[in-house]
Amino acid sequence: MKPDELVKLTKYFRKVFANDTLVAKARPQKKDSCELYSGEEFIGVIFRDDEDGELSYNFSMAVLEMDLE
């Protein structure tokens, strides 16, 4: 993803989750997605979807059972 997209996504996720530690980081081998971190902790992947002229982003986050305890 482009640097300006990473900035916009970082601002968006910080606002939505009221968490200033969130940051969207580029994935070295992928251009259609980035990773979301809280500090140094990986949170999930944000995929860029540019289909039929409509741009959207899809956030995918796995929650492990052990994290629920």
Defining key terms:
69 residues, alpha+beta, 4-stranded antiparallel beta sheet, 1 helix, 4 strands, 22% helix, 48% strand, globular
Describe the 3D structure:
- About 15% of the residues are buried.
- It is built from one helix and four strands.
- Helices cover about 20% and strands about 50% of the residues.
- It is globular, with a radius of gyration of 13 Å.
- It has one domain (about 5-69).
- It has about 70 residues and is of the alpha+beta class.
- The protein has a four-stranded antiparallel sheet.
- It has one helix at about 5-15; strands at about 20-25, 30-40, 40-50, 55-60.
Number of helices: 1
Q: Name the average pLDDT.
A: 95
Helix residue percentage: 10-25%
Q: Ranges with pLDDT <50 over ≥5 residues?
A: none
